[in-house]
Design goal:
Order of helices and strands: HHHHEEEHH
Radius of gyration: 14 Å
Oligomer: single chain
Strand order of the largest sheet: 1-2-3
Largest sheet: 3 strands, antiparallel
Number of helices: 6
Number of strands: 3
Shape: globular
Length: about 140
């Protein structure tokens, strides 16, 4: 599947199963992450398993979308899903939690540091970021 097909498939995201008992601030980003997992599985035939290693696939997909020259407005919701997925990986593997403030979402890790995976996904799109490296840094001790 091409990056353009991935972009097109986000217009009808698949729904995922129950997200369990998530706090109010975690519900939206967890849903966006689950939608990105479903989109990649069903559209691109790529399995994302919420592991830190899976983030290299996400970085590569964002790079492919960029190389195809897609305008930001066309990929904004895809990038949001990829950012949420990256944040959810940090939450699961670096002892983090989603925090909502001023209409935005961040991940706070066990050591009190804050991470913005949505901005990192946007930075990946312009060639200056990596969700894989954000997760690596978040997992490193503070």
């Amino acid at each position: 599947m091409s990056a353009q097909q991935t972009i097109n498939s986000v217009s009808t995201p698949a729904t995922s199963g129950s997200l369990g008992n998530r706090s109010g601030s975690a519900a939206k980003p967890a849903r966006w992450a689950a939608d990105a997992v479903a989109m990649m599985r069903e559209g691109a035939r790529v399995r994302l398993d919420y592991s830190a290693q899976s983030l290299w696939r996400v970085d590569r997909m964002i790079e492919e979308i960029r190389r195809e020259g897609a305008p930001y407005a066309a990929v904004e919701s895809v990038l949001r899903g990829f950012g949420a997925y990256g944040g959810e990986v940090v939450v699961r593997w670096a002892g983090g939690e989603w925090v909502e403030s001023g209409g935005g979402y961040w991940v706070r890790t066990w050591d009190g540091r804050f991470w913005d995976p949505f901005d990192e996904a946007r930075r990946c799109f312009v060639g200056d970021g990596s969700l894989r490296l954000l997760c690596h840094d978040a997992m490193a001790s503070g």
